[in-house]
Amino acid sequence: VSTALQAGAALRLALFAPEQLQATPEGSALLAELEGRPRCHPATPAVVAAAADTQHPQGVVAAVAWPELEP
Question: Which of 71, 68, 47, 67 lies closest to 59, judged by CA?
């Protein structure tokens, strides 16, 4: 999610578990960026895990718009 934001991607929806993100400096920076953004919502770790397509979610899951590429 952090890489997508750095690339200028448009977030359609993000769920994040604040207590998980606060565990690392990188996560804390991402948390600060997500808080207050439209369509970005705090959630419990269980909710984030249920929405993630991974065995070890890292505290955030997001839907991002595909970039439009020139042919």
Answer: 47
Q: How many CA atoms lie within 13 A of 7 on its CB side?
A: 11
First to last CA, the chain: 26
d(CA 48, CA 60): 6
pTM of this prediction exceeds 0.85: yes
Strand order in the sheet with 40-42: 40-42, 11-16, 60-64
Candidates 63, 21, 29; CA nearest to 45 is 21
Q: Are strands 60-64 and 11-16 parallel, antiparallel or unpaired?
A: antiparallel
Residue corresponding to tokens 């439009």: 68
Tell me the per-residue pLDDT of 2-47, one tens digit each, with 9 for 90 and over: 999 998 888 999 999 999 999 999 999 999 999 989 999 999 999 9
